[in-house]
Amino acid sequence: MVAYGAEQRVRVPAVRARWRRQTFVHWPFPPEAVQALLPRELVVDEYDGVAWVGLTPFVMADVRPAGVPATVPGLPSFAETNLRTYVRREDGRDGIWFLSIDVACPLMLAARAVGAPYTLGALRVGTDGDTVSYAGSRTAGKVSYRLTVRPGDPVQPSERDVWLTSRWRAYTRRLGRLWETPVEHEPWPLTGAAVDVLEETLTAAAGLPAPLDEPVVHYSPGVEHVRLGPSRPLFP
Fold it and tell me: What CATH number is given for 15-233 in this structure?
């Protein structure tokens, strides 16, 4: 069982930010289909006997180095959309593996240095009454998505809700090694969410087949105290 709150303190963050207006769209997939997309050092994590892939659009707000307060004017805020799955190392440490990361900020492409699969695109996040909408398309190619949800009432997270949303490290691969990036933030405040529009080609572009069932969807207004630690290479 993954931890509802952060598993570790990130005492010296490389980056601080707020994550806002985040939707979690999770589909079940055959584990072998997801395993085929992972590096050899990682094993797909399963819940209820299936692998899960999440489409998670959100706003990365007030991005800044450690020591810079969120009140400084002009801090960058931009849309980002991740396609991710859940994995474990041989030692059992769980985390996220990104199948793709679409972002509206060219500065984030620097994270490719540790293997983060950032792709520049035109992304939009908006609200209209009781709906939140997301849209994006990659600068190169025909990959795109549209998503509109209606957030519902707050929910007390179930074990599966926590498993799907609360992960405290991301793995990437670069220069023949696995890299780990720790993250710390307060627990996600979650609501249910009804989907009005869902059109996407991200999963097919990542090499996934059709999902096994309809998605599980949550919405969160966000978390305010995100601390991303420095990425470090892992050694056997």
Answer: 2.40.400.10
Q: Please name the residue that has the structure tokens 């990659």.
A: 138
Does position 5 have pLDDT exceeding 70, yes or no?
Answer: yes
Strand ranges for the chain from DSSP E: 15-29, 43-44, 51-64, 78-88, 94-103, 118-128, 131-138, 144-154, 169-174, 177-184, 191-200, 216-228, 232-233
Nearest to 29 by CA among 10, 45, 6: 45
Query: Each residue of 53-110: pLDDT tens digit?
Result: 999 999 999 999 988 988 899 999 999 999 999 999 989 999 999 999 999 999 999 9
Which residues does residue 192 pair with via DSSP β-bridges, in sequence order?
218
Domain extent listing, the chain: 15-233
